[in-house]
Amino acid sequence: MEVRQLNVHTQSNMAIRFLITNTNPSFANTLRRIILAYVPTLAIDEVIIIENTLALFDEFIAHRLGLIPLNSDIELNDIATCEQCEGNGCNACTVTLRLTQETDSKTNLMVYSKDIISDNFEVYPVNDEIPIMKMGQDQRLILEAVARMGNGREHAKWQPTSSLGYQFMPIINVKSGHKFNKQVADSCPRDVLTYNKENQTIDIQNLLACNLCQECVHITNNDITVDADPRQIIFYVETTGALPVETIITKSAEILEEKANEFIESFQKALEDYKDDPRLRRKVSTFERVSLDDV
Amino acid sequence: MKITIQIYEKDYMRMQIKEDPHTLFNLLRIVALEEEGVTLAGYARDRTFEQSLMFQIRTDGTVDPKDALLSAAKKVAEQAIQFKKAFEDTYLG
User: Fold this and answer.
1) d(C-alpha A278, C-alpha A246), whole Å
2) What's the CATH number where B80 sits?
3) Structural domain range at position B7
4) What is the pTM of this model?
5) A109-137 pLDDT, tens per residue?
6) Cβ within 8 Å, pair B74-A2
7) CB spacing of B20 vs A246 below 8 angstroms
8) Would the CB atoms of A256 and B80 count as touching at under 8 Å?
Protein backbone atom coordinates (compact mmCIF):
# COMPACT_ATOMS: atom_id res chain seq x y z
CA MET A 1 0.00 0.00 0.00
CA GLU A 2 1.30 3.44 -0.94
CA VAL A 3 0.00 6.94 -0.43
CA ARG A 4 0.60 9.62 -3.03
CA GLN A 5 -0.11 13.30 -2.47
CA LEU A 6 -2.49 14.95 -4.92
CA ASN A 7 -3.41 18.59 -5.19
CA VAL A 8 -4.30 20.50 -2.05
CA HIS A 9 -7.55 22.35 -2.63
CA THR A 10 -7.47 25.19 -0.18
CA GLN A 11 -4.68 27.49 0.88
CA SER A 12 -5.25 27.07 4.59
CA ASN A 13 -4.61 23.29 4.53
CA MET A 14 -8.22 22.57 5.43
CA ALA A 15 -8.56 19.87 2.77
CA ILE A 16 -6.35 17.22 1.25
CA ARG A 17 -6.72 14.81 -1.61
CA PHE A 18 -4.51 11.75 -1.83
CA LEU A 19 -4.21 8.54 -3.76
CA ILE A 20 -4.05 5.18 -2.01
CA THR A 21 -2.64 2.51 -4.28
CA ASN A 22 -2.71 -1.26 -3.92
CA THR A 23 -5.75 -1.25 -1.64
CA ASN A 24 -9.43 -2.17 -1.87
CA PRO A 25 -12.73 -0.25 -1.59
CA SER A 26 -13.54 -1.90 1.75
CA PHE A 27 -10.44 -0.41 3.34
CA ALA A 28 -11.32 3.06 2.06
CA ASN A 29 -14.89 2.69 3.29
CA THR A 30 -13.73 1.52 6.71
CA LEU A 31 -11.45 4.54 6.94
CA ARG A 32 -14.32 6.82 5.93
CA ARG A 33 -16.68 5.32 8.50
CA ILE A 34 -14.06 5.59 11.25
CA ILE A 35 -13.35 9.24 10.47
CA LEU A 36 -17.04 10.06 10.57
CA ALA A 37 -18.00 8.08 13.62
CA TYR A 38 -15.00 7.36 15.84
CA VAL A 39 -12.40 10.15 15.67
CA PRO A 40 -13.06 12.19 18.84
CA THR A 41 -13.36 15.97 18.83
CA LEU A 42 -14.51 18.63 21.24
CA ALA A 43 -17.95 20.28 21.14
CA ILE A 44 -20.26 22.11 23.52
CA ASP A 45 -22.59 19.59 25.10
CA GLU A 46 -24.12 21.34 28.09
CA VAL A 47 -25.25 24.96 28.40
CA ILE A 48 -26.21 26.66 31.63
CA ILE A 49 -28.37 29.67 30.79
CA ILE A 50 -28.13 32.23 33.55
CA GLU A 51 -30.18 34.92 31.84
CA ASN A 52 -31.89 34.97 28.47
CA THR A 53 -34.31 37.73 27.49
CA LEU A 54 -33.93 37.07 23.76
CA ALA A 55 -36.70 36.05 21.40
CA LEU A 56 -34.86 32.75 20.92
CA PHE A 57 -35.51 29.83 23.27
CA ASP A 58 -32.73 28.47 25.48
CA GLU A 59 -32.71 25.16 23.61
CA PHE A 60 -32.36 26.94 20.30
CA ILE A 61 -29.24 28.78 21.47
CA ALA A 62 -27.77 25.66 23.08
CA HIS A 63 -28.17 23.74 19.83
CA ARG A 64 -26.45 26.47 17.82
CA LEU A 65 -23.57 26.64 20.28
CA GLY A 66 -23.11 22.88 20.04
CA LEU A 67 -22.59 23.08 16.28
CA ILE A 68 -19.65 25.52 16.50
CA PRO A 69 -16.38 23.64 15.79
CA LEU A 70 -13.86 24.08 18.59
CA ASN A 71 -10.14 23.52 18.35
CA SER A 72 -9.78 19.94 19.59
CA ASP A 73 -6.05 19.36 19.17
CA ILE A 74 -5.54 18.91 22.92
CA GLU A 75 -5.36 16.02 25.36
CA LEU A 76 -8.59 15.66 27.34
CA ASN A 77 -9.99 12.65 29.17
CA ASP A 78 -13.18 11.02 28.03
CA ILE A 79 -15.86 12.15 30.52
CA ALA A 80 -17.39 8.67 30.80
CA THR A 81 -14.12 7.12 31.96
CA CYS A 82 -12.56 10.12 33.76
CA GLU A 83 -11.05 8.88 36.99
CA GLN A 84 -10.85 12.26 38.65
CA CYS A 85 -14.55 13.15 38.58
CA GLU A 86 -16.28 9.82 37.79
CA GLY A 87 -18.35 11.32 35.00
CA ASN A 88 -19.43 14.52 36.73
CA GLY A 89 -17.14 16.78 34.73
CA CYS A 90 -13.85 18.34 35.83
CA ASN A 91 -10.92 20.25 34.32
CA ALA A 92 -9.36 17.03 33.06
CA CYS A 93 -12.34 16.12 30.88
CA THR A 94 -14.34 19.30 30.20
CA VAL A 95 -13.71 22.90 29.18
CA THR A 96 -15.95 25.76 30.26
CA LEU A 97 -16.78 28.61 27.90
CA ARG A 98 -18.71 31.78 28.64
CA LEU A 99 -20.86 34.13 26.60
CA THR A 100 -22.17 37.44 27.90
CA GLN A 101 -23.84 40.03 25.71
CA GLU A 102 -26.14 42.95 26.40
CA THR A 103 -27.85 45.55 24.21
CA ASP A 104 -29.20 48.97 25.18
CA SER A 105 -32.45 50.58 24.07
CA LYS A 106 -30.97 51.85 20.78
CA THR A 107 -28.84 49.11 19.29
CA ASN A 108 -29.26 45.69 17.76
CA LEU A 109 -26.35 43.29 17.95
CA MET A 110 -25.15 40.26 16.06
CA VAL A 111 -23.45 37.71 18.29
CA TYR A 112 -20.53 35.89 16.66
CA SER A 113 -18.45 32.91 17.72
CA LYS A 114 -15.58 35.28 18.59
CA ASP A 115 -17.67 36.56 21.53
CA ILE A 116 -17.31 33.19 23.26
CA ILE A 117 -14.65 33.34 25.98
CA SER A 118 -12.92 30.10 26.88
CA ASP A 119 -11.36 29.15 30.22
CA ASN A 120 -8.72 27.09 28.41
CA PHE A 121 -6.48 29.04 26.05
CA GLU A 122 -6.08 25.99 23.80
CA VAL A 123 -9.82 25.68 23.21
CA TYR A 124 -11.50 28.31 21.03
CA PRO A 125 -13.95 28.45 18.11
CA VAL A 126 -11.98 27.68 14.95
CA ASN A 127 -13.62 30.54 13.07
CA ASP A 128 -14.37 33.94 14.55
CA GLU A 129 -17.10 34.90 12.13
CA ILE A 130 -19.73 32.22 12.74
CA PRO A 131 -23.00 34.06 13.46
CA ILE A 132 -24.87 32.63 16.43
CA MET A 133 -27.88 34.91 16.90
CA LYS A 134 -29.18 38.45 16.51
CA MET A 135 -30.10 40.39 19.62
CA GLY A 136 -32.80 43.04 19.67
CA GLN A 137 -32.90 46.17 21.83
CA ASP A 138 -32.78 45.93 25.61
CA GLN A 139 -31.90 42.26 25.70
CA ARG A 140 -29.42 40.34 27.78
CA LEU A 141 -27.77 36.96 27.47
CA ILE A 142 -25.52 35.35 30.06
CA LEU A 143 -24.57 31.73 29.72
CA GLU A 144 -21.94 29.16 30.57
CA ALA A 145 -21.22 26.28 28.21
CA VAL A 146 -19.42 23.03 28.93
CA ALA A 147 -17.54 21.35 26.09
CA ARG A 148 -16.49 17.71 26.18
CA MET A 149 -14.94 15.10 23.93
CA GLY A 150 -17.30 12.95 21.91
CA ASN A 151 -17.55 11.19 18.58
CA GLY A 152 -19.80 11.22 15.55
CA ARG A 153 -21.76 8.17 16.68
CA GLU A 154 -23.29 10.24 19.46
CA HIS A 155 -24.08 13.38 17.49
CA ALA A 156 -22.96 14.87 14.17
CA LYS A 157 -21.54 17.93 15.97
CA TRP A 158 -18.55 15.78 16.98
CA GLN A 159 -17.71 14.81 13.41
CA PRO A 160 -14.23 16.14 12.56
CA THR A 161 -14.87 16.54 8.84
CA SER A 162 -17.26 18.63 6.82
CA SER A 163 -16.67 16.87 3.52
CA LEU A 164 -15.29 13.38 3.10
CA GLY A 165 -15.32 10.83 0.32
CA TYR A 166 -13.44 8.59 -2.07
CA GLN A 167 -13.62 7.54 -5.67
CA PHE A 168 -11.93 4.96 -7.85
CA MET A 169 -9.07 5.99 -10.10
CA PRO A 170 -10.43 6.67 -13.60
CA ILE A 171 -8.91 4.86 -16.59
CA ILE A 172 -9.70 6.61 -19.87
CA ASN A 173 -8.90 4.89 -23.16
CA VAL A 174 -9.13 6.87 -26.38
CA LYS A 175 -9.28 4.80 -29.56
CA SER A 176 -6.02 5.43 -31.38
CA GLY A 177 -6.07 6.54 -35.01
CA HIS A 178 -9.69 7.66 -34.74
CA LYS A 179 -10.70 11.21 -35.72
CA PHE A 180 -12.83 13.10 -33.22
CA ASN A 181 -14.58 16.46 -33.31
CA LYS A 182 -14.45 19.31 -30.81
CA GLN A 183 -17.85 18.48 -29.32
CA VAL A 184 -16.34 15.45 -27.60
CA ALA A 185 -13.96 17.61 -25.57
CA ASP A 186 -16.71 20.14 -24.89
CA SER A 187 -19.05 17.43 -23.60
CA CYS A 188 -16.85 16.77 -20.57
CA PRO A 189 -18.23 18.74 -17.58
CA ARG A 190 -14.89 18.53 -15.72
CA ASP A 191 -12.62 19.59 -18.62
CA VAL A 192 -10.69 16.33 -18.53
CA LEU A 193 -10.40 16.07 -22.32
CA THR A 194 -8.83 18.55 -24.73
CA TYR A 195 -9.19 18.72 -28.48
CA ASN A 196 -6.12 18.66 -30.71
CA LYS A 197 -7.14 20.64 -33.78
CA GLU A 198 -4.23 19.60 -36.03
CA ASN A 199 -4.54 15.86 -35.66
CA GLN A 200 -8.27 15.88 -34.79
CA THR A 201 -7.56 13.79 -31.74
CA ILE A 202 -8.56 13.90 -28.08
CA ASP A 203 -5.93 14.28 -25.35
CA ILE A 204 -6.38 13.55 -21.68
CA GLN A 205 -5.30 16.65 -19.81
CA ASN A 206 -6.61 16.38 -16.28
CA LEU A 207 -7.30 12.74 -15.47
CA LEU A 208 -7.85 13.19 -11.72
CA ALA A 209 -10.72 15.59 -12.29
CA CYS A 210 -12.76 12.86 -14.01
CA ASN A 211 -15.85 11.88 -12.03
CA LEU A 212 -16.67 8.83 -14.20
CA CYS A 213 -19.81 10.44 -15.62
CA GLN A 214 -19.46 8.53 -18.94
CA GLU A 215 -20.65 11.50 -20.99
CA CYS A 216 -17.71 11.16 -23.45
CA VAL A 217 -18.45 7.44 -23.82
CA HIS A 218 -22.04 8.13 -24.86
CA ILE A 219 -21.22 10.95 -27.27
CA THR A 220 -18.49 8.95 -29.08
CA ASN A 221 -20.42 5.69 -29.07
CA ASN A 222 -17.67 3.80 -27.16
CA ASP A 223 -14.70 5.20 -29.13
CA ILE A 224 -13.63 6.51 -25.74
CA THR A 225 -14.03 4.17 -22.76
CA VAL A 226 -13.97 5.16 -19.10
CA ASP A 227 -13.28 2.50 -16.48
CA ALA A 228 -12.52 2.64 -12.78
CA ASP A 229 -9.70 0.90 -10.97
CA PRO A 230 -10.95 -0.18 -7.52
CA ARG A 231 -7.39 -0.92 -6.33
CA GLN A 232 -6.42 2.73 -6.62
CA ILE A 233 -8.56 5.07 -4.57
CA ILE A 234 -8.64 8.85 -4.52
CA PHE A 235 -9.53 9.97 -1.01
CA TYR A 236 -10.76 13.45 -0.19
CA VAL A 237 -10.94 14.87 3.34
CA GLU A 238 -11.94 18.36 4.40
CA THR A 239 -11.79 19.22 8.09
CA THR A 240 -14.14 21.50 10.01
CA GLY A 241 -11.03 22.96 11.63
CA ALA A 242 -11.47 21.04 14.88
CA LEU A 243 -8.44 18.87 14.10
CA PRO A 244 -5.67 19.24 11.51
CA VAL A 245 -6.58 17.11 8.54
CA GLU A 246 -3.42 14.98 8.82
CA THR A 247 -4.22 14.20 12.46
CA ILE A 248 -7.71 13.01 11.52
CA ILE A 249 -6.32 10.48 9.07
CA THR A 250 -3.50 9.16 11.27
CA LYS A 251 -5.93 8.90 14.19
CA SER A 252 -8.41 6.94 12.09
CA ALA A 253 -5.68 4.45 11.14
CA GLU A 254 -4.80 4.07 14.83
CA ILE A 255 -8.46 3.45 15.70
CA LEU A 256 -8.71 0.79 12.97
CA GLU A 257 -5.66 -0.97 14.36
CA GLU A 258 -7.15 -0.81 17.87
CA LYS A 259 -10.42 -2.23 16.62
CA ALA A 260 -8.71 -5.15 14.88
CA ASN A 261 -6.67 -5.91 18.00
CA GLU A 262 -9.78 -5.64 20.15
CA PHE A 263 -11.47 -8.18 17.88
CA ILE A 264 -8.54 -10.61 18.21
CA GLU A 265 -8.64 -10.30 22.00
CA SER A 266 -12.41 -10.77 22.25
CA PHE A 267 -12.31 -13.64 19.77
CA GLN A 268 -9.69 -15.53 21.74
CA LYS A 269 -11.72 -15.01 24.90
CA ALA A 270 -14.87 -16.26 23.11
CA LEU A 271 -12.99 -19.40 21.99
CA GLU A 272 -12.17 -20.17 25.62
CA ASP A 273 -15.80 -19.65 26.64
CA TYR A 274 -17.21 -21.66 23.77
CA LYS A 275 -19.24 -24.69 24.69
CA ASP A 276 -20.68 -26.99 22.09
CA ASP A 277 -24.41 -26.73 22.79
CA PRO A 278 -26.32 -29.56 21.08
CA ARG A 279 -29.63 -27.70 21.49
CA LEU A 280 -28.30 -24.85 19.38
CA ARG A 281 -26.70 -27.18 16.86
CA ARG A 282 -30.04 -28.88 16.10
CA LYS A 283 -31.78 -25.63 15.31
CA VAL A 284 -29.18 -24.05 13.09
CA SER A 285 -28.85 -24.17 9.35
CA THR A 286 -26.49 -21.85 7.47
CA PHE A 287 -29.05 -19.25 6.51
CA GLU A 288 -31.27 -19.49 9.55
CA ARG A 289 -30.92 -16.65 12.00
CA VAL A 290 -30.60 -17.87 15.54
CA SER A 291 -29.20 -16.05 18.50
CA LEU A 292 -28.43 -17.37 21.95
CA ASP A 293 -31.40 -15.45 23.33
CA ASP A 294 -33.80 -17.69 21.40
CA VAL A 295 -32.52 -20.91 22.91
CA MET B 1 -16.74 -6.05 21.80
CA LYS B 2 -18.66 -9.07 23.05
CA ILE B 3 -18.33 -12.18 20.91
CA THR B 4 -20.40 -15.34 21.38
CA ILE B 5 -19.42 -18.32 19.26
CA GLN B 6 -22.51 -20.25 18.23
CA ILE B 7 -21.11 -23.01 16.03
CA TYR B 8 -17.53 -24.19 15.72
CA GLU B 9 -16.90 -27.09 13.40
CA LYS B 10 -13.93 -28.33 11.41
CA ASP B 11 -14.75 -26.18 8.40
CA TYR B 12 -17.34 -23.73 9.69
CA MET B 13 -17.69 -21.12 12.38
CA ARG B 14 -20.48 -18.78 13.27
CA MET B 15 -20.63 -16.12 15.94
CA GLN B 16 -22.71 -13.26 17.23
CA ILE B 17 -20.88 -10.00 17.86
CA LYS B 18 -22.12 -6.92 19.67
CA GLU B 19 -20.43 -4.19 17.64
CA ASP B 20 -21.00 -1.71 14.84
CA PRO B 21 -21.26 -4.11 11.86
CA HIS B 22 -20.11 -2.35 8.73
CA THR B 23 -17.00 -0.55 9.98
CA LEU B 24 -14.62 -3.39 10.82
CA PHE B 25 -16.41 -6.50 9.63
CA ASN B 26 -16.86 -5.52 6.02
CA LEU B 27 -13.08 -5.16 5.74
CA LEU B 28 -12.48 -8.31 7.78
CA ARG B 29 -14.78 -10.26 5.47
CA ILE B 30 -12.89 -9.14 2.35
CA VAL B 31 -9.49 -9.88 3.90
CA ALA B 32 -10.70 -13.29 5.18
CA LEU B 33 -11.87 -14.25 1.69
CA GLU B 34 -8.32 -13.75 0.43
CA GLU B 35 -7.02 -16.26 2.99
CA GLU B 36 -6.07 -19.66 1.67
CA GLY B 37 -8.82 -22.27 1.97
CA VAL B 38 -11.62 -19.86 2.87
CA THR B 39 -14.70 -20.44 0.73
CA LEU B 40 -17.20 -18.19 2.50
CA ALA B 41 -16.91 -15.21 4.80
CA GLY B 42 -19.79 -12.89 5.49
CA TYR B 43 -21.82 -11.00 8.00
CA ALA B 44 -25.44 -10.05 8.47
CA ARG B 45 -27.17 -7.70 10.83
CA ASP B 46 -29.31 -9.82 13.11
CA ARG B 47 -30.85 -6.97 15.13
CA THR B 48 -32.58 -3.95 13.64
CA PHE B 49 -32.08 -1.42 16.42
CA GLU B 50 -28.94 -2.74 18.08
CA GLN B 51 -25.29 -2.74 17.15
CA SER B 52 -25.08 -6.46 16.56
CA LEU B 53 -24.13 -8.83 13.78
CA MET B 54 -23.80 -12.50 12.88
CA PHE B 55 -20.46 -13.40 11.29
CA GLN B 56 -19.81 -16.70 9.57
CA ILE B 57 -16.79 -18.25 7.89
CA ARG B 58 -16.47 -21.51 5.99
CA THR B 59 -13.30 -23.19 4.74
CA ASP B 60 -12.66 -26.12 2.44
CA GLY B 61 -11.62 -28.25 5.42
CA THR B 62 -7.87 -27.85 5.05
CA VAL B 63 -7.76 -24.82 7.36
CA ASP B 64 -9.29 -24.29 10.77
CA PRO B 65 -11.78 -21.37 10.45
CA LYS B 66 -10.43 -20.00 13.73
CA ASP B 67 -6.91 -19.73 12.33
CA ALA B 68 -8.13 -18.17 9.08
CA LEU B 69 -10.10 -15.52 10.95
CA LEU B 70 -7.29 -14.71 13.36
CA SER B 71 -4.86 -14.39 10.48
CA ALA B 72 -7.30 -12.09 8.64
CA ALA B 73 -7.74 -9.88 11.71
CA LYS B 74 -3.97 -9.59 12.06
CA LYS B 75 -3.76 -8.57 8.41
CA VAL B 76 -6.35 -5.84 8.99
CA ALA B 77 -4.23 -4.45 11.84
CA GLU B 78 -1.16 -4.66 9.60
CA GLN B 79 -2.98 -2.81 6.82
CA ALA B 80 -3.84 -0.01 9.26
CA ILE B 81 -0.20 0.28 10.37
CA GLN B 82 1.01 0.17 6.79
CA PHE B 83 -1.42 2.88 5.72
CA LYS B 84 -0.51 5.10 8.65
CA LYS B 85 3.17 4.75 7.88
CA ALA B 86 2.66 5.44 4.16
CA PHE B 87 0.53 8.48 4.95
CA GLU B 88 3.00 9.88 7.46
CA ASP B 89 5.91 9.34 5.06
CA THR B 90 4.08 11.30 2.39
CA TYR B 91 2.64 14.15 4.42
CA LEU B 92 4.59 14.48 7.66
CA GLY B 93 7.91 12.84 6.87
Assistant:
1) 52
2) 3.30.1360.10
3) 2-91
4) 0.89
5) 999 999 999 999 999 999 999 999 999 99
6) no
7) no
8) yes
